Amino acid sequence: MLRQITRTSCHSRTLSKRLLSLSTQYRCITTKNGVLRENMSIISDSSTIQPPDSLLQKNFLRANYLKNNKTISNEFDLFTGTQHAVSLTMADKRDVMSLWSLLEACLQSNYIERSFSILKSLYEIESHRKSFIDDYNYFFNHIATRFSSVKEMSDRLQKDLTLHFTDISPNDKTVAILLNQTLRITKKNGKLEDNSTRQNLELFLTMSSSGLRKICSNIDILTLEDYKILYSKMDLIKDYHLPNNIRELIVGEQKNILQDEMANVENIERIGATNTGTTTSSSSSNDTAVKETTTQLQQDDSATVRLDEDVKSIEKDAAKLVNVTTLGMRVIRHSLQGLSLSEKQNELISNFNTNSSSGVFNLDNKKPVNFFEMYKSLKTDEEKMLFEQNLEEFNQNRQQTLEVRATDAAKERWRHDFEEAKARGDLSIQKSLNSKLWKWYNDMLPLLKEEIQDCKENLDKKNVGSKHVLNRSDFAPYLTLVDPEKMCVIAILEILKLNSTGGISEGMRTARAVISVGKAIEMEFRSEQLLKNESYLLKDINKKSNEFKQYVRNAKKSLRSLKLDESKVIWPQAVRAKVGSILISILLKVARVPVEGKNPLNEEKVFGDAPAFSHSYQYHNGVKLGVIRIHPSLINQLNGERLFASVQPQLLPMLVKPRPWVNWKSGGYYYSQSSLIRTKDSPEQMAYIEAASRSNTIDKVYDGLNVLGETSWTVNRKIFDVVSQVWNNGKPFLEIPGIQHEPEYIPRPSSDADPSEINTWKLKNREIANQFASNRSMRCDMNYKLEIARAFLGEKFYFPHNMDFRGRAYPLSPHFNHLGNDMSRSLLTFWKGKRLGADGLRWLKVHLANLYGINKIPIDGRVEFVEEHMDEIRDSVDNPLDGKFKWWQKADKPWQTLATCIELVEALKLENPEDFISHQPVHQDGTCNGLQHYAALGGDMVGAAQVNLIPDNKPNDVYMHVANIVRANLQKKIENDPEDEIAKFFIEKLNRKIVKQTVMTHVYGVTLVGATLQIDKQIHDMIGDREVSLKYSKYLAKAVFEAIRQSFNGAHLIQDWLGECCNRISKSIRLDVDKSSLLQGKKPDFMTSIIWTTPLNMPIVQPYREVSKKQVDTNLQTVFISDPFAVNKINARRQKAGFPPNFIHSLDASHMLMSAIKCREDGLEFASVHDSYWTHASDIPTMNKNLRQQFVALHEVDLIERLKDEFDERYKNYIQISKIPKTSEMASEIMARKNLLAAELGRPITYADELKLEQKRLALLNSEYESEVKEGEQMVTTISLAKGCEDLFTAEDRKGDRNVLTVLTPLDLPNIPAKGDFDVSNVNNSTYFFS
Where is the composition biased (Low complexity) (predicted)? Predict the structure, then answer.
C-alpha cells in the first residue's frame, strides 16, 4: 500500500505558496497532457497505422490491422508535402539541432548568459515547444549548482517559467533536480537534519502527477547518496520507488542482502574445493580486478610502441603473423593491446579456483590465459555457469578499455620515440615517424591553445565586432570542450588515416577531411561526458564495500543506457567543418618533413624541410575539388598504402554481452551510441523508426537482434594454426593472395610496333595493375581479420547487431564476424558446446557434404558421401597442407570444410562419437530464398516445387532447372539460325555455375549490366578476349532472364505488380498539398516515398531522394557538405528499381528474426547470415522445425493483399500525374470541363484549382449530411473524370508528348495478380526447404 505523503508548511510561507501553486499548476497541466498522451498512445500517420498488441495475429502477424485503426497523424506529412513546405519544416528541425549543440557547448564552457539567450531562441520555435522542458531542465540542472539556498533556486525556477517560458510546466526531471540540489545545499550548510529541509523535500515530491517512481527514475540527476537519504534517513520513498539496479545498491546494505552475498561466496568456494576446474571469485578479487585493469590501461598509455615500425602483437600462445606493413595494421595491433592481461590479473584468474587438483587454473605466467580451454575443462553445468558469471564480471573493465579511445596513449608513444630519437641524433629523428608526429604535436599545441584563448575572449565579449570575430563565434563554444592536447592527437591521426581516400591519390578531399576531424572531436567529447556522468552517479559510494561491486556494475550499465538514450544532440555539419578546418589549418602550418636534394652547382647533397601537407585544387570526374596533399616522402613512410578505416576499439567484438536493444538508439556497445538502423542522412526513415519505437510496436525486432547479440563465440584454434601457417608462408593459397611487393608488368612493345599491339599492351598492364591492387587490398583485409582473430584466441566474445533500412541484421564490428568470407567463418566457433547425439552426428556429416558442394542429393546420400571419403577426411585433418589427397582444398567452401573435418574426426576418436561435445556451427541454407518468398506470395506451384517448398524425396536444383531451360531455348535459336555462334558456344559450355549468381540475384533486382558482369566472371577464362567475353555474357544474361520468367511466372507477376505500384505512388502528391506552390500552372514536386510495414511492425522507408548539399565557409576553403535535415524530391527511378528486392529483403529479415526468437525460446544457440541459419549439430532438427513453422506463419497471411490494403490506406486521397491520348473521349470531357472552369474563373485553370475542387468534392461525399453527400455525388471535377485512366490506356497509347494530355487522376493502384494454388502449409513437411 502506498504511504500517504503529508504536506506540511514550509519554513518560508512565500516559498510554500509559490511552490504549491506551481505544483497545482503542474498537476493540472500534466493531467490534461495525460489525457492527450492516452489519446495519442498509438503512434500513427498517413503511412504508419499502428495497432494494439491484441490485434497482432499468431507470431506477431496481422492481417486487417488497417481497418481497426483509422487514426491519421500529421507527424510525417512534412515528408510528402511540397519542397517549399518541407524546407520550412526541416529548417525548424535544423535550427533546433544547431541551438541544442550550441546550448550544450556554452553550458559546458560556463557561458550562462549566452546559454539563456539560446534557450529563449529554442522557446521561440513553436514546433519545438512541446519538448522544450527537456532543454530547460538541461540548463536548470547546470546552473542549479551555483545556488547557495533553496529559496534562491526556487525563485529562479519560478521566474523563468512565469516570465520567460509561460507555456512550460516542470516535469519529473525538474523535480529530481530540485531534490538533488536541495540535498546538496542543505548538506553544505549543515541543515540536512532541519525540519524545513524535510518539508521542502516532501513538497517537491508532491509536484509529480506520475508518482514517486517516475521521479526516482532520473538516475542521471539523483546520486546514490541522494537515494540513501531519501530512502534510509528520511523515509520519504519506499524500495519499490527505486530503480531496479539502484534498489539493489541501497537495499543491499541491509543485513539479509549481505548474508545472501556471503552464502553465495561460501557456496562458490565449496564447489571449487570439491570440483576440479571450477571458478570462484570473491568480491575483493573483483575490486582488485577493477584496479588492475585501470593500472594496466595506464601502463598501456606509456608503453613504447613505434608506429613507424612493426607494432608488437598481443602475446598469445600462437604463431605471430607476417603483417602487411600499413599504418592501419599497426593501429589495429595497438587497439588489440587492450586485451592484454597483467601479472596480477593472471593471479586473479588463477584464484578463480585455488584448490583445483588438476592444475587447470594453476596458470603458467609465461603462457597467455586461454579462457576457452579453462571453460571446456569444467565437468558440470553448474561449474560452467559459475565460471561464465565470473568471466563476465572480470571482462567488464576490459570491455571499457576496448571501447574508450586512447588518444593519450598515442601522444605518449610519440613523446617517448621523440626523446629517444633526439638522444640518438637528428638522423634518427628524420627516420622516425613517431618522432615527426611528436614534433608536429608540440608545435601545434601552443597555436591551438592560443586559438582557444581567443575563442574564450570572444565568448566573453558582449558586443561582436569584425567579420573574423563573427566567424569565430560560430565555432568558439565547441573548440573549448575537449582538451587541446587530445584535439591535436585526434587531428593528426584522422588526417593520416584519410590518406588516398575519396578517389584522391596521395591525399584526401578537403571537405571529407574537415568533417572527419570535426566529428572525431565531437565523439571524444561524447565519450568524456559519458564517463563523467557514470562517476557522478556513484561518487558517494564507499569504494571499499566490495559486496556491492556487481550492483555497481549493473547501475553503471543502466546509466550508460539512459545517457545514450537521451543523447539527441549532434553537432551541425557546418560546426564540424569549422572545428575541423581550424585544427587542420594549424596542422598544415606546423607539420614539416625532412627532404634532401642535390646542389646543381657542385652536386653536393643538401638537406632541408618541406610542408608535410599542402592545400590545393584538382579536377576529379569533371568537378573542381579542394584537396589536401601529403608530401611524397611521408607517403613512402606510410608505405604508399591506402589506409583502411582505422579500427577503433569500439568496433571490435565485445567481451561482455551487448547492451540489449530496448529502443531505436539504445543497444550494442556501452560507451558509444549505435542506432537501430544504419542509414545515411535519411530523417524520414529515422522519424518512422522513432515513432514505432515510442509506440512499442517493434519490440519483437529488438528481441530478435538481442538473440543474435547474445550468442557467444570463440576462435577456432586449430583452423587458426593452419591459416597462420599458410599466411606466413607468403604464397598464394585458395582465396589468400600471396605476398607481392610490386606488380610484374609486361615489357613495352618496340616504338615501331603496331598501334593495336600497343593498345593491347596497355590494356593487359592495366589489368595487371588492377589485379595487384585487388590482391593487395584483399591481403590487407585478411590481415586485419587474422590479427583480430589471433588476439581473441581463448576469449569469449559477442557480436552486437543492428539493421539496414530493410530490416536485415549485420554485426556492428566490421572486420571480423560470421558474415565474412569462408576463411572468417571457419575461424569462428560457438563458445558453448553441446553433446552430438545420433541426430547431431548425422547432421555434422550432412553439413560437411553441403560445404563440399554435395548439396543437391538426398540427405542420406550426403551422409553416404562423407562416410565414403573418411580416408580423405582423416588425411585432411592429419596433414591439411601436405596430405596425400588435399581433399578439403577442392571443396566449395574449403576452410569451413576443414573445420568440420576436424570436428568430425575428433568425435569419431571417441568410443561413442555421440558423446562428443561439439562447438561447430552447422548451417541450414534456403534454396534461393528470394524465389521461395516470391513463390509463397504468388501461390506459384511450379516455382514452389523448384525452390523446395513442396515435399519431395530429393532436393530440386533451381539453378540446374534454369540452365536446362536456357539450353532448350538456345537449341531453338540454333534451329532458327544455324549461324548463331554464341548459342552454339553456350550449348556446349553452359552449366549451373554460370547461371547460379544471376538466378540468385535476379529476384533482388540485378540489372542486365550486373548480370552481364556476373556471367563474364564465369566465362572470361574460357574466351580470353575481354570485349568478346562481355558480348557473350550479355547475350546469355538476356537468355537467363527469359528462362527465369518462363519458370517463375507467378513470381514475375508479383514483381511487376510491385514495380507498377511504385511507379504510380512515386508520381503522386497529397490532395491537401500546399496549393501556393502550384500557382501559374507549376508542376508539383514529387515527394512521396514508398513506405510499408513489415510483419514485425517495422516501418520501411525507401531513402532514395535527390541529393542536396549546402555551402559552408571555412578558413581553408568553401566546402559543400550534405545536409542531414534536407528532405528532397524523390528519385523515382531508384524508388522503382529498389522496391521489389527491398520488399523481399524485408520479408526474409522478418523470417530470420521470428526464427531467432523461437530458437532462443527453445534453448538453442542461433546465428544467421541473412538466409543461412546456424546452430549446434544436435539442435538442427529443432531449428528446422522452427524455420518451417515461422515461414508458414509469415505467409499464412496474404502479404500482398495486406500490402495493398496498407497502400490504399496510406496513400488514400493521393493524386497521380498521368497522361492520356488527346483523341480519347476522356480527354475531350476533361478539356471541356477545364474550359468551363476557366470561363467561370476568368483565367486559365491551374493544378491548384483542380486540387481544390476535388478536395471540396471529397469533403461533401464524406459529410454526415445527406444533402451534402448528394451534392458531392453530382459534382464533377477534372480529377474525378480521369479516374481509372491508368488501366484504360496502354503504354503505347501514351507515347509522344504532342499526342497526350497530362491530367491529374486519383491514385488508383493496379489489381493484385491472381494467386495460385500452392498451400504454404506444405512447407512444414518439406525436408529440403532449408537443408
Answer: 274-286
